[in-house]
Specification:
Helix content is 20%, strand content 23%. The protein is of the alpha/beta class.
Length: 537
C-alpha cells in the first residue's frame, strides 16, 4: 500500500438526485420510434421476466429533458452483456428534468405489458456525475396511461438500497405493492420507465437488466439494508478452467492462449492481520466473493514483525493461504511486501532465499504467481530491474515457469519507464501497476496506456477506492473509471484490502470475519463496491 508524496486531497463526487418512473399504458398508446410490439411469455407463473437488458430485450424508444440531455443505449458501460441505457443529463431543474424509455418489444400490444403475478420491479443502476452535495434519490412510479394518463406516487430507492453509491452498479428491488396510485395501480398495462433528475447538474445514470420478478432476494422493505447480490451459478475452479498463466504480447493469457482477466482481493500485511490468513477465509473468497485470485503478503520490512523478524511465523501464514487457494482451485499471489523508501533495493539475499523456497515448494502449481517487489519506493528502474533479474533467476533455476510480476518505481506506478527498457532475459513476466482512485487519475491511466502500447503486460496486484493514504478521499466514480479501463484492456486486479482495520480502504467493518457469505452489514462502503464488482456476472 502506497503513501502520498504530496497532498492530493480530492472531493468526494456525489450524484444528483434521481427519480425513476414506471408507466402503465392504456389503449392506443404509441411513441415515435417505437418498435413493433411482440407477445411476451404466455404466463407470468415464471419467476422473472426481463423487459430491457440491451441484448435479448433491447428495443424501445425514449425522450429526455432539458435541452442537451439524451437517453439511449450505449456500449461503454454495462452491468451485464455489452449494452446499458444511459441517461445523460444536462443543466437545471426547470420543467421535467428527466427522460423516459418504453420497452415496446415486451408489450402485449398497444395496452402495455401484463405484470400480473409479479411482486417486484428490479433493475441495476449506477451513476456518474459531478454534482456535489445533492442526495441521490431513486424514485419509481407505476403509471396507468389510458388517456388521460395517471401515475403512482414517487418511491425513493434509497429507502430500499440505503448504501446506493455513486459509481457502483447496485441492484434495486422495489415491491410492486409500494407503487400506490389514487386510481389504483393497473398491473395489466405497464410499459415505460421514466428517469428524473430533480437535482439538476451534469452527469449520467446507467440502467440495465430491467425486470419484474418474484425473487426471494428482492424482499427489501423501506429503511432496510438491501440484500447483497448473490453470485450467479455454482462455483467452478478458475484454475481448472484456465490452467497455467502465460504472458503473450501485452496480455496475461490462460493455458489456451486467450487473454484472461483475474479479479480478487488482496489480504493485508500478514503479521498484522493473521485472523484472515485462514482456510475458511480463502474458501469464502472463492465461493462467496467469487475471487479468481487472492494475494498473500509477506511483510518484508525490518523491525515490523514480518518475515525478516520471524520467518517461521510468516511462512506458516503464507503457506496456509497458498495451500487453501490451491485446494480451492483459485490463483494466489505470493507477495514480497516491501514499500519503505530506500536508495536501492534492500534485503536482496533474503528475498532471493524466500522465493527460492517458494518456487521449490509451489513452482509446479499453476495456481501460483510470484510478486517479487510490492512497491519500489526510491530506487530507479535500472536498480529495480537488476534486483528483479536476480530474483527471477533464482525462481527459474528451481524449474518454475510460473508467472512473475515485477514491481515498478514510484510505488509501482512508473510502468511506462519499465516498458521502455523491459526485462528480456526471461519470459512470462508482467509488470505491477498500483493505483488509489482518490489520488491517481487520468495521468496514471495514460502511463499505463503507454506501457501497453510498448508491448508489456500489466497486473494490478493492489488498488484502492480511496486516496493513497488508505484512509480518506473515497471516490467511487473514479474507481469505476479505473475498472472500466482495466476491463477494456483485460488487466487483472485485486482490491486492497481484505481487512477489518478502521480505515477507508478496508473491505470489512471492525470485528468482521470471513467464513461464509457476507451480509451488507459486514462490509464497509469500499468493501461493498469491491464485492459488487466481484460477484457481478
Amino acid at each position: 500500500m502506497k503513501m502520498i508524496m504530496t497532498s492530493m486531497k480530492q472531493n468526494l463526487v456525489r450524484p444528483a438526485s434521481l427519480a425513476l418512473v414506471l408507466f402503465a399504458l392504456g389503449p392506443g398508446f404509441a411513441r415515435a420510434g417505437s418498435a413493433s410490439p411482440v407477445t411476451p411469455p404466455a404466463s407470468n407463473s415464471v419467476n422473472r421476466v426481463v423487459v430491457w437488458d440491451g441484448e435479448s430485450a433491447a428495443q424501445g424508444a425514449g425522450w429526455s429533458n432539458p435541452k442537451g440531455s439524451t437517453i439511449g443505449p450505449q456500449t461503454a458501460v454495462a452491468h451485464s452483456g455489452n449494452t446499458a441505457l444511459e441517461f445523460k443529463f444536462k443543466g437545471g431543474v426547470a420543467g421535467w428534468p428527466g427522460a423516459g424509455w418504453n420497452w415496446c418489444a415486451f408489450q402485449t400490444g398497444p395496452h402495455g405489458t401484463d405484470i400480473t403475478g409479479f411482486k417486484y420491479f428490479t433493475f441495476w443502476l449506477k451513476t456518474r456525475g459531478t454534482v456535489a452535495g445533492v442526495q441521490l434519490n431513486l424514485l419509481c412510479n407505476g403509471r396507468e396511461f389510458d388517456l388521460p394518463e395517471h401515475h403512482t406516487e414517487k418511491v425513493s430507492a434509497l429507502d430500499y438500497c440505503p448504501q446506493l453509491l455513486d459509481g457502483a452498479w447496485h441492484r434495486v428491488s422495489i415491491p410492486l405493492k409500494d407503487f400506490t396510485q389514487p386510481q389504483g395501480f393497473d398491473p395489466l398495462h405497464v410499459g415505460e420507465l421514466q428517469i428524473f433528475n430533480p437535482g439538476g447538474g451534469d452527469g449520467s445514470f446507467f440502467i440495465d437488466d430491467i425486470a419484474f420478478d418474484n425473487g426471494a432476494d428482492a424482499t427489501a422493505t423501506p429503511g432496510a439494508v438491501a440484500a447483497l447480490n448473490q453470485p450467479v451459478g455454482p462455483y467452478s475452479s478458475p484454475v481448472k478452467i484456465h490452467g497455467a498463466l502465460r504472458v503473450i504480447g501485452n496480455h496475461v493469457c490462460d493455458a489456451g492462449g486467450k487473454p484472461y482477466q483475474l479479479k480478487g482481493m488482496s489480504l493485508y500485511w500478514s503479521q498484522w492481520s493473521p485472523q484472515f490468513y485462514t482456510k475458511p477465509t480463502i474458501d469464502s473468497l472463492a465461493e462467496d466473493w467469487r475471487c479468481s485470485v487472492v494475494r498473500a503478503e509477506a511483510g518484508a520490512e525490518p523491525g515490523e514483525g514480518g518475515y525478516l523478524d520471524n520467518p517461521a511465523a510468516a511462512l506458516a501464514r503464507i503457506k496456509t493461504v497458498v495451500d487453501a487457494a490451491i485446494a480451492k482451485g483459485i490463483y494466489v499471489i505470493i507477495d514480497w511486501h516491501k514499500e519503505h523508501r530506500v536508495a536501492a533495493p534492500a534485503n536482496v539475499p533474503e528475498a532471493t532465499a524466500f522465493f527460492t523456497q517458494m518456487a521449490a515448494a509451489y513452482g509446479a502449481c499453476p495456481n501460483v504467481i510470484f510478486e517479487i517487489y510490492n512497491e519500489p519506493n526510491g530506487p530507479q528502474w535500472p536498480a529495480v530491474k537488476a534486483y528483479a533479474e536476480t530474483v527471477i533467476a533464482a525462481i527459474r533455476k528451481s524449474g518454475s515457469t510460473n508467472l512473475i510480476v515485477v514491481g515498478t518505481p514510484t510505488w509501482s506506478q512508473d510502468v511506462d519507464v519499465a516498458a521502455a527498457d523491459p526485462i528480456t532475459d526471461f519470459t512470462n513476466i508482467a509488470y505491477t501497476l498500483h493505483f488509489y482512485a482518490g489520488s491517481h487519475r487520468q495521468f496514471l491511466r495514460d502511463k499505463a496506456a503507454r506501457a501497453l502500447s510498448r508491448g508489456i503486460a500489466l497486473f494490478v496486484t493492489e488498488w484502492g477506492t480511496c486516496d493513497s493514504s488508505g484512509n480518506g478521499g473515497l471516490d467511487f466514480a473514479e474507481s469505476e473509471i479505473w475498472l472500466d479501463f482495466l476491463n477494456q484492456n483485460q488487466i487483472s486486479w485485486l482490491n486492497f484490502s481484505l481487512h477489518d482495520k478502521a480505515e477507508t480502504a478496508s473491505a470489512l467493518k471492525p470485528g468482521t470475519r470471513v467464513a461464509g457469505p457476507p451480509s451488507a452489514a459486514d462490509l464497509t462502503p469500499s468493501g461493498r463496491f469491491a464485492y459488487d464488482h466481484l460477484v457481478a456476472p
